Fold each of these.
Amino acid sequence: MSTADQQPQGVRWARWSAVLVVSVIGLAAFVLSFAALRDLAVMAHTPTHLAWLFPVIVDGTIIQATIAVLALADSPERSFFTRVLIAGATVSIGGNIAHALASGHGAGAAILAIIAPAALLLDTHGLAVLLRARSAPTSEPATVPEPVVPEPISTTAPTRLPNSLASVQPITVPPVRAVQPFQPPRPTPVAAPTGSY
């Protein structure tokens, strides 16, 4: 197997390893954020059997918006999904902080609670970037196009002019008048007064 064949296989292996690692970390971050947001929904008197919907909505919005931002990279609609992503991440991080504070764990736990939703945001975005890069076409060596050889031009004059050229009338150009260069007027000499006063 040549070096050229080994490199794409090595790149493919590294990319799939990165996808696997990012997926596992993202899943762990989702589970931790899910638990905190579900618990927060229960604290807010959401029925226990429905509390799981709150983290699905919040963290699911992050995942959906991240995929949409990457899929619409060259589209004006991307700005909408970017705002949705920022809003979803803000709600998720704020919810995790609120859960830590409402549980009575203090400021240290609130800072620690930021890690799971932030990791979910980063890992989801990273996974989407990796999958997009994997589906992008690999660069192929450039092929040099064959030069185009022009056809030889015939040197024989046509035996007769086409009808459209035969009816062309000559153009008469009006004569050009010579223009003299501009000369400023000469000052007139002033005569000195003669005689006495």
Amino acid sequence: MPDATELAKLLVSLLCPALPFLMKIGEKVAEGVSADAVKALGKSSWDKAKNVWTKLSPQVEQKGAAQEAVTNVIQRPDEISQFALISQIRDILEGNPELTQELLKLMQEKDSEHERAVDKSVNLQSGGVTVRGDFHNPGGTFVGGDQHNAGNK
């Protein structure tokens, strides 16, 4: 079982791409937010992020520093902002074992989209390397190579 810091890291990795959408849900202009979120994140990830946020957000709203960390991650989702949010969520989890167990259970639920990981791609321009495949499935297909420097090894 992960400790509060590890669980906070998992939660932030799930929530970071979803937070801009999650924060719009309460606004009147939020029509279509769920559809946009599903397009951007996938239905399964969006549903999990919504469920996690439903449980976690009341605690975040009670803590000004946590609210500020969320705002900072939305405005600038870099490592420093994410680290601050991880720290705030860790503090919330350490103070609430029941919430920690609920969130841990949610995070452990099978996620069919993540299990399939349809087609993940990375293109490293500087080295001319392209990697494609299912990074969540060790048996996935991976293609790579340096097309520009094939003879220069």
